[in-house]
User: What shape does this take?
Amino acid sequence: MERTKMTKMVVTIALAVGLTAGGVARADKWSEKYPIKKDIPGPASYEATSQKDYKGRTLNILTHAIPVMGEPTALHAKQFEELTGAKVKVVHVPFGDLFQKAMIPFQTGQAAYDVMFYASLWIGDFNAYLAPVPQKYVDMPQMQEVTRNYKDVATWEGKMIQFPVDGDRHYLKYRSDVINNPELRAKYKEKTGKELRVPQTWKEYDEIGRFFNDWDWDGDGEKNYGSAEVVARDNLMFSAIISRVAPYAKHPDVKGGFFFDLDTMEPLVNTPGWVEGVKDFVAAQDYMPPGGNNFGLGDEIFSFGGGQTLFSYSWDDAFVQAMEPKSRIRNLVGAAPLPGAHKVWNRKTGKWDNFDKPNYAPYICWGWTSAVAKASKNKDMAFDYLAFFANQANHPSDLLVGRFGVNPFRTTDFDPKFYIKEAGWAPDVAKTYCATLSGMDKSRNRVFDLRVPGVNQYMSSLATGVSKALAKQLTPQKAMDEVAVEWKAITKRLGVDRVRKAYANVVALEDNLK
Amino acid sequence: MRIIIYKGTKYLVLILWSAFVAGPFLWALSTSFKNDAAVVSGATYIPFVDFEPSLEGWRILFSADTEGVNIAGPYISSLIVTVVSSLVSLALGTLAAYGLSRFTFRAGPLGNKDIAFFFISQRIITPVVLAIPYFLLLKTFQLLDTHIGLILIYIAMLLPIVVWVMVDFFNNISTELDEAALVDGCTPLGAFYKIILPECTPGLVVTGLLCFIFAWNDFFFAFTLTFVDTQLLPVSIVALNSSKVPWWSLSSSSLVAIVPLVFLAIWLERYLTRGALLGALK
Amino acid sequence: MLESRYKYLFLLPGLFTLLAIIIFPLVFTFRLSFSSWDVVAPALDFIGFDNYVRVFHDMRFWESLATLGTVVLSVVSIEYIIGFGLALTLWQDIEKSRFFRVLFIIPMMSTPVIISVVWRTMFHESLGPINDLLAMLNLPTVPWLSKPTSALIAVMIVDVWQWTSFVFILLLAGLLSLPHEPYEAAAMDGANHFQTFWHVTFPMMAPISIGILIIRIIEASKIMETVYVLTSGGPGTSTETSAYYIFIRSLREFQIGYSSAMSIIYLLMMIVALTLIARGLTRVLVGKGG
Assistant: This one.
């Protein structure tokens, strides 16, 4: 080639490379500074957020204790500060005190926090104090990706008033190194004549849990036990009992309510379906570890996540703990839908219906959500913060940090390849996990929480009654009868119409009317 | 022989109780160096021998980033609120207690004993129901989320104890001392300040310590009456109590929180001596 | 008693300060008890004595009072006996006793909210040291928090651990404030340790003992955080004390009106009980010997 032509070509190539490199570098400038893979363009991306100028303004955020939800809140708050110039103050509160911390300012008319992170089932009590999510945020691509379940959870009377930032559910967790272990399978077959498998019903859970209780089956020198559950009364036990009751009491063909009969507002908590679940729970104490009937969520996490028990069910935390890099049972766990039931109570006929194929009723259990206070003078900043928190760059990155407590809730979150590649999960683990979680979304027989005003009163009463049954102070039927009586009183006190109106929304979701 | 049994029992009791007292702190110390692995397999005790120690539980208390909390600021806030409320309560309380001990007050059928009981009865009502009333009180004066607001609440919390305890200590001192002082030309306030108060040193010291302890360790009011600007130590520590209870950081914080009080106790203990003037009159 | 026209200057600053701060909250709480302020309706309506009637029918409240009574009477007695014993061993040998004195007051200096969690980890039946050590010594392990009786004992252990210091230090200060003469007289009479204690020390310490017992009863009755962290009032409702039950109703369920009524009833009952106890103690402790 001629010299000049060669030079021209080299220069052109150099320019091209340089421009491209510059272009690529500009796209990555956020991922260099922040713990994300790369900034995904969108209305709440790093780039877009950095264009906003909130200098001189303060945002007050109430969130959960560090690290579950508390740490990502603080992390994204700090990032938001850097990007927009705003001052962001974050307050961390343990779960047990979170309701009161938010409610007292609400009830006394004190504008304390702009953004709150809290348990999504308090929507019945909080909704009057929350600002609806403006349409432009609902229309964002990141919001469109939110699955049906979690959009439903964020909605009240047709409007989105909670901002989805996380998705929770209850599911069954098991030790795959036991269920798949040939020796143990042989032992189990020998003793019971049945195949060892992931339990399909709570009765099977009981049978298998009992067999694997009180001996060392994983060879670490410590005894193992059957099941770690959340049993401590005013901890979160009310959710554990709903998981156990759901398949017995949520009949796929009987509409009109799970906690109440929507028409009459009669509590259903002492119907045979519910009582059956409570009976299972009482019996489960036989195969819990020492102290197991006083386990709170933290103890359950240590127990199953530390390798003590064969089973657990409830939120993601124990699973995440088990999958921690240094955990001794990493990649030795699996996920499955909550056990079902072969018999379901039919309250219309007053009889048990038999299901050859077990009835499953996934419990779309409450989890973390966020919202903006109606009284906030910084709603624009608040929503921008939340959108930034959950933007398409931050969310996958948060998903990978187990202790953050951010769990899948977008359609893009259920690809096993993500967990295999980014988190180093074994393929089976990733596959069972994603299949279980996405399956819950597709179910037509879902159970939601009692998302009505006064939910804490109902749940506290429920937990106390179940606790009395557990302690054998009362029989399960008597205990639940007591609960039903108290529920009637609560409904009367709060106003039947008010509660019914709110409960109708929940039933509409469960009956798939929307 | 009897003396040996007596002394022996004495020391046995002291050793046993010391072990009981120290036990939880030693456990907290050991646990503060643990992490997940050291906790989930069962109880472990000695670092390096039973488990691999980690500084996680300590680091997280002084972290500069979002992984933990930084208790330095709350430490200072607690210090300010505790010292001010304790000193004010001590001052007002001992004056009131002296008055109740020395003079007669009448309010209809109610006398000194009733007034003293009125003071201590303020401690009966469970704090939880006072959440909203106190909240509204501070809201009215725009003292929510401020140090001053908390100081006022703590004064109301501590005054009853000061009065109730100091009345008993003042009653233990014969009024002849006061009368002697008055005869010598002291004003009642002078008699109180120069003569009686020094005689009450043990009582005063203990009461002061109690004030400090109750104010420093309060969680409920510090939690309910603040938002984002004022954070006291117990509230900042509890901010770490998430879904998975962090055994290590709560253990380390239990030790860190107690340090100033221990120093205070060591310093004040030397004043727990018998009064010099007692018995000088008889 | 003395007389002085300055006497009000002593009492009133403290009294007025206290009244200024607490008068509104007390009156408001009283007013709340006649309203139906709830989680859905934060309003000061007037419903007369409905809340109070409801409290009278609330078996859970009365059971919680019974549980409370058991706990308080047990722990306060134990704390008094141990505290007095410790104070007696340490009030005269100043030198050697310094270490023990300081050590023994440290438990009450721990933050209840945090130390309860430490105790929870200690009582943990799978991962905690107490059962572990019992097993090591070949003793039977105790279902500390999973059975009603042992759970109640666990709660009491924590209270005794923490608050014996309180009784100890006040009794110590009290002992140090005693005059010398009676002891000199007793020594001259050839009294031994026990006789000196029973006829000299104990009667002189009676007034301050009563004061300490009253205050300990009041404080112990408010036991809440320990129950919350250790057992959540369980198993069942076996460790549910009144303060904990009121906490659930007021700040978990937000039945503000109802829980205010409960506290007022609790307050009135405590005042009556304390007055009777004080009178009884005075007769027993002061009326004897000396």
Remarks:
- Chain C touches chain B through 101 residues (CB under 8 Å).
